[in-house]
């Protein structure tokens, strides 16, 4: 037993050392691969560095989050994901003149909603219910956040399918400006609610319904460690965006070779940028902090719409192709089904394995239909 424990401690120490080095390795890889055609084998190596850099970003974001406490900590990863997502979408749209990238923003944003509301929430609920029977969360906080996500997604991704001011599933410039402003207002209102008078709605809940104000089992990091982690987090985010652009030709080649629609590239982009949220949410669920998992999952969906769409609306002035944001019929049905199931999950304030399984099946159906529409 002592030998096994010593091995685990050694592995953890090695991991702790690597997370301080990986952001620098990511930047070096970015410099070496920027704007260059890579041989096929190098795509795998750069992809491995990308995943490692994302995991390092998770680690440093968690340090910052632990220092500032909940619910502010959940906002750290949400904003980080938005930075990655916007940067990646813009660089891909600017770098692919021969390919129609007008739907990349829509595909990525919708994939982010489906990944967070079904994949991350489903996995977190399943892990939490297996480890802690029926973990509790605050339905007021989760329900309020879900209402904002539903409204944002409907305004930005569903309505363009039915508007008639522009050909195709597109907003006119004035409509795009309106939904961008509305998205910022809604997101800002939610942040004020989450960090202000109703902060308790977003704090972890014990089995007896008592609000857990913070993780008292461990000391928060020092100011110096927090600022170092914040700096390395920013470095890692830059490296992630650049490396994802470097491996995107390899992803697109694989998509073409597999006969999968190009829209699946948006799904891959969303999976990459949401990996930190997924890892952090699963770890929180394992610690019986399911409310934190919901904050991360639903908050990421909210940030992917409420911050990404306004940023892209401004960037559309310089982008070579217009933004096609409207969802197709299959995607709208998937979204409506997800909304109904998520509402039924949130209302009781307690999670079961069945709820986790339902969300994960919906996530699998999304991935399957994305590859075979």
UniProtKB/TrEMBL annotation:
Keywords: Membrane, Transmembrane, Transmembrane helix. It is a multi-pass membrane protein. It is found in: Membrane. Residues 43-195, 229-371 form the Sodium/calcium exchanger membrane region domain. It comes from the Bacteria. InterPro entries: Alkaline_pH_Ca-Antiporter, NaCa_Exmemb. Its main location: membrane. Pfam families: Na_Ca_ex. The chain crosses the membrane at residues 18-34, 40-60, 72-94, 109-130, 142-162, 174-193, 225-244, 264-282, 294-319, 325-347, 354-371. PANTHER family: SODIUM-POTASSIUM/PROTON ANTIPORTER CHAA (PTHR37958), SODIUM-POTASSIUM_PROTON ANTIPORTER CHAA (PTHR37958:SF1). This is Ionic transporter y4hA. It comes from Protaetiibacter mangrovi.
């Amino acid at each position: 037993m002592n030998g096994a424990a010593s091995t685990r401690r050694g592995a953890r120490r090695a991991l702790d050392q690597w997370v301080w080095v990986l952001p620098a390795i990511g930047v070096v890889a970015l410099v070496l691969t920027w704007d260059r055609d890579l041989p096929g084998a190098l795509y795998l190596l750069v992809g491995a560095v990308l995943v490692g850099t994302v995991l390092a970003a998770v680690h440093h974001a968690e340090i910052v989050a632990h220092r500032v406490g909940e619910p502010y900590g959940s906002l750290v990863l949400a904003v980080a994901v938005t930075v990655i997502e916007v940067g990646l979408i813009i660089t891909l749209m600017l770098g692919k003149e021969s390919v129609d990238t007008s739907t990349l923003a829509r595909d990525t944003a919708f994939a982010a909603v489906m990944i967070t509301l079904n994949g991350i929430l489903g996995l977190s609920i399943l892990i939490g219910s297996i480890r802690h029977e029926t973990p509790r969360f605050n339905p007021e906080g989760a329900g309020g956040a879900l209402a904002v996500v539903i409204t944002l997604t409907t305004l930005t991704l569903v309505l363009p399918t039915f508007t008639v001011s522009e050909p195709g599933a597109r907003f006119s410039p004035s409509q795009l400006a309106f939904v961008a402003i509305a998205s910022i207002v809604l997101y800002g209102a939610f942040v004020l609610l989450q960090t202000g008078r109703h902060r308790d709605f977003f704090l972890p809940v014990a089995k007896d319904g008592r609000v857990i104000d913070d993780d008292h089992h461990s000391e928060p990091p020092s100011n110096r460690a927090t600022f170092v982690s914040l700096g390395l987090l920013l470095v890692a985010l830059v490296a992630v965006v650049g490396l994802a652009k470097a491996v995107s030709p390899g992803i697109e080649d694989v998509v073409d070779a597999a006969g999968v629609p190009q829209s699946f590239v948006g799904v891959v982009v969303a999976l990459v940028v949401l990996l930190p949220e997924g890892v952090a949410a699963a770890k929180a669920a394992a610690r019986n902090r399911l409310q934190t998992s919901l904050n991360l999952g639903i908050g990421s969906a909210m940030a992917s719409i409420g911050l990404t769409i306004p940023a892209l609306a401004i960037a559309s002035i310089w982008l070579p192709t217009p933004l096609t944001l409207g969802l197709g019929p299959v995607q709208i049905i998937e979204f409506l089904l997800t909304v109904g199931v998520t509402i039924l999950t949130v209302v009781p304030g307690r999670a079961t394995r069945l709820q986790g399984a339902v969300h994960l099946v919906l996530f699998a159906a999304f991935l399957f239909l994305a590859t075979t529409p």
